[in-house]
Amino acid sequence: METSAAILARRSVRAFSDQPVSRDLLRSLVETATWAPSASNVQAWRFCVVDDPALVRKLDMVSPGLSGKPPVIAVVLSDREYARAKGGQKAADEFSSLDAAYACENLMLAAADAGLGTCAIKSYNDDAVRSLLNVPDGLQVELLISLGWPDPAKSPRAPKRKPLDEVLRFNGCEAWGAEETSSHTDAAASQADDEGCTASCAEQSRDAIGAEGKARPVQTSLSEAMSASPAPQQKTTQPSAVACETAFHGSLSAAMAASAAAAGAPPHSAEEGTDGLELLAYMVTSAAGLRGEPAIYGPLRLIESSKRVAAQLADSLKTADPARAEALRNLATLIAERQNDCMTDEDSFYTMLSEAAALLAKAL
C-alpha cells in the first residue's frame, strides 16, 4: 500500500475479530515505529505490547475509551528521566511526548499497511495502568493503541474533515482571526473523531474493509481537552471547591489502584461477579477521567454504562420475564448501534438518547 493510501484509508477501529496477531508482526510494527523523527535523536519512546488475554482484559476494564475487545494493546511510554539526561529539560517536558506521538503514527500506518485495525486511546486511568504494568517512576504512559484484525461486519464510517481552504494559509496567518475561529468552534466539536482524543475516546464503530479483504485501518484525530469550568467562590470557613475536587479525584485514583488489583481477583464462581466488576471498573475510571474531557463524553460514558446494565438485566430475566428481557435487549442494541454518533453527529446521538428512554419505559 502506498503511504498516502494508508493515510487516507486509516480508520479508528473499535470492533475486532478474535484472530491472534503474531509476535513477528507486532515486532515489525514497533520497529517501524522507532524510525519516527526524534528531537536530537534521543529516542525516549518505550513500547509495552500486551497480548496476554488476561492482562488485555484488565487494561480494557480500566480504559473507558477502549472498546471492541482487541486482542492486543500497545502501551506507548516515554522515559522522561532518560530524555532529561540525554536532551535536557525541554526534551523531558515536551519533546519526548512529541516523539512518542510521531512513533504512534508510524505504528498505526504500518498496521494499516498490514491490514490491521488500530485505535489510539487516551481515555484510560493512568494510576490503574501503571499498577497493572508495574510502570517504573520516570516513565510516562503516553497512549494506548488497541490493535487487531478488524471485524468485517462492523466498519467505521469515514470521519468528516474540514475543507482544505479552511485550514491552509500561505505566508502568513492573518486570516485566522478570532471571529473566524469562534465561528467554527461548534462545527469542530461536532466533527471530533474519537478515539483517540487528547482528552480521549471512546466508543463502537464500523470499519471499512478493502477490496482484498484488508482492513482500512485506523485514523484518529486528537482533540483538545476541554477545561473544567471554574468553581464558584467559597466562604473561607468552608473547604474550597478546588480542594474538594482535588480530594475527590485523589480518592478516585486510590480507588482505581485498588480496582487494578481487584481485577485479578477471581469471582465467587466462574461467571458470577465478572460483568459487575467490569462495569464497576468502567464507571470508576470514567468518573476519574471526565475532568478535562470533551463535554459530550459525559453522556457517552453514562449511556455506555446503561447499555451494559441493560444487557446484564436482559440476560438475567430471559427466563423469568422474556418480554422485559427483550425490551432491554432492544435498548442495549439501540445504544450499541448509535452511541458513537456523538463523534460525528451530535443531533443523532441525542435523538438516540430520547429513543432509548422510550424503549426503557417499555421495560418498567
TrEMBL record:
<dbReference type="InterPro" id="IPR029479">
    <property type="entry name" value="Nitroreductase"/>
</dbReference>
<dbReference type="GO" id="GO:0016491">
    <property type="term" value="F:oxidoreductase activity"/>
</dbReference>
<dbReference type="InterPro" id="IPR050627">
    <property type="entry name" value="Nitroreductase/BluB"/>
</dbReference>
<protein>
    <recommendedName>
        <fullName>Nitroreductase domain-containing protein</fullName>
    </recommendedName>
</protein>
<feature type="domain" description="Nitroreductase">
    <location>
        <begin position="7"/>
        <end position="59"/>
    </location>
</feature>
<keyword id="KW-0288">FMN</keyword>
<feature type="domain" description="Nitroreductase">
    <location>
        <begin position="70"/>
        <end position="149"/>
    </location>
</feature>
<keyword id="KW-0560">Oxidoreductase</keyword>
<feature type="compositionally biased region" description="Polar residues">
    <location>
        <begin position="218"/>
        <end position="240"/>
    </location>
</feature>
<dbReference type="InterPro" id="IPR000415">
    <property type="entry name" value="Nitroreductase-like"/>
</dbReference>
<dbReference type="Pfam" id="PF00881">
    <property type="entry name" value="Nitroreductase"/>
</dbReference>
<dbReference type="Pfam" id="PF19585">
    <property type="entry name" value="DUF6092"/>
</dbReference>
<keyword id="KW-0285">Flavoprotein</keyword>
<feature type="region of interest" description="Disordered">
    <location>
        <begin position="208"/>
        <end position="241"/>
    </location>
</feature>
<dbReference type="InterPro" id="IPR046074">
    <property type="entry name" value="DUF6092"/>
</dbReference>
